[in-house]
Amino acid sequence: MGTPDTDPPVDPLFIDPYTAELIKSDGRVHEPSTMRAVAAELAKSIEAVEKAGGDGSAVADIHVGATPFGQWADAKTFGAAAGDGAGQQLGQVYAEFIKAYKSVVAAVEASASNHAEADLRSEGA
Description:
Helix 2 (32-51) packs antiparallel against helix 5. It is built from 5 helices and no strands. The chain is flat and about 65 Å long. It is mostly helical.
């Protein structure tokens, strides 16, 4: 026969009160209004980036040669690899990021709509 544990059991689903207050809802895990609020905040963030000219076109015209990176061998290799297409490639990647980010916002909004519709159907409305 062993000795009893002196520590109380730890609840793996415990959420500290501060965090619980931040995510307070009506008890549903899939609350559409919360999902829409998240989508709205994400959308505001990406709009701020786009207003600042963050569509990738500003960096597409940057031409980088080997010189800014230094004269040692690895710097020259890096500069040659970056080359004249570096700005264009960075602009393309940035534009793809913006597109993917907007897809996430749209997916969260669509999920909120799906959950809202399911709620209405399950409540008999």
